[in-house]
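Homework-ish question, so no full write-ups if that breaks the rules, but can someone show me the predicted structure for this set?
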Amino acid sequence: MPTLKEQGKNKVISRLLDAAAGVIKRSGVKIKAIGAGCPGPLDSKKGEILSPPNLPDWRGVRLKKIIERRFRIPAVVENDANCAGLGEAMSGAGRGSSSMVLLTLGTGIGSAIVLDGKLWTGKGGFASELGHVSIDYNGLKCGCGNRGCLEMYASATAVVRRRKAAGKMTAEDVYKAAEKGDKISRRIVDETAVYLGAAIANIINALDPETIVLAGGMSKAGKKFFYKVEKAAKERALKEASKGVRIVPAELGEDAGIIGAAWRAKNS
Amino acid sequence: MPTLKEQGKNKVISRLLDAAAGVIKRSGVKIKAIGAGCPGPLDSKKGEILSPPNLPDWRGVRLKKIIERRFRIPAVVENDANCAGLGEAMSGAGRGSSSMVLLTLGTGIGSAIVLDGKLWTGKGGFASELGHVSIDYNGLKCGCGNRGCLEMYASATAVVRRRKAAGKMTAEDVYKAAEKGDKISRRIVDETAVYLGAAIANIINALDPETIVLAGGMSKAGKKFFYKVEKAAKERALKEASKGVRIVPAELGEDAGIIGAAWRAKNS
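A: Not a homework solution, just the prediction itself:
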């Protein structure tokens, strides 16, 4: 169901909890734990929302406690990109892999790192912000304060920004135009493949993962785009690590986060 | 003892094993396992050397088997940068940390990633090649085939290359000259701090580690250099993850690899 954030946090939360209660009742299944995926940054240990840019009034909400009080079973709160990554790793394009990195190319770039079947979340739960790993220390200024963040080059927003001369296009429009032979769109798509490939080469050299999963609108850009991303990544990465790495599209679509939140609750 | 690689692999290996046998005998200690640190790339699972650029005749040497045949106890072979990282993580500058990343700034840049007290080595043992993580997708061409590798900007070799006008200087000479007020040297040192800071910001945003350890000749460049690196890193990294991260010099010097190889054998 849609968030309808303009209703304010209290209404949104009680509507979501009511919906969950209804599903639990109708299913007849005994629920042992609840996992909730939320926009970050958040403190997963405490189950507290910190400062999500798109949900400013949620700052300080102790979602874990709220869920546990209502349902009287353990709850886990994890950031939504991590949930999507865990979902794809356990039940989607990464299943069977010893290690997987997810990049979700949307308005921004979400990402997750799953090592030995577990999310790597870092000392404070802030790891795997791969959209803010820079591909050019002297590159485009990003809203986060850094320069050259991948998000500034390969997110859907960045693709549309580079094609702005054409007016109101979406990233998918740019991909379709490129397929149909529009030269400017094709150049933008090819550049995007190189940016993404350079970032993926860095991921390969740093982590030597078994599988890299690309999700989000841009992952639907077609086989040709995937092939170009893979080519750029393997040309740049060290031979030993790039041998055998799988670069594949996500499988679970918008369900990835829901499935991953459930895994996160199961494994905690 | 020095490797004396010009003697060829057979002589070098038997000299090393004789030395180890002598130490074991004199110590009177019962040894349960042996850990050996070697230049990579190598296959740690098989204990086989693959293709170390500086030891070409070692290709295909099954060092694990050779050690086990001689001493009749289990042996582990791990790449030397990983051994140094594990040493610093367990007994050096990273002890007590839940996660640590080591960067050794020498002729090249060696590195290691230690997560939850264990080396992260990836699907094939080729992870943590952070010297070949690029800080500029369109930057200087590296011998590995990629562009903009950190090694091309922040290794001792890169520092000396940029100061080449001055003739035969070492990286330490450049640092000393900068301290004494030489303007060109100071600019090079300041640039190096920014390159390193940009790379460390990427590590922080990707892995949110508790401690980052800098080792090698350049880590002796003094407190001012460390301060500049830390400043550049924290200016660029996301606030949440950079809060509380420790950036510290290595403690174990050249013993890091020996101590880490022992830990690697103990933990396997």
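Now go work out the reasoning yourself. Hint: Chain A touches chain B through 50 residues (CB under 8 Å).
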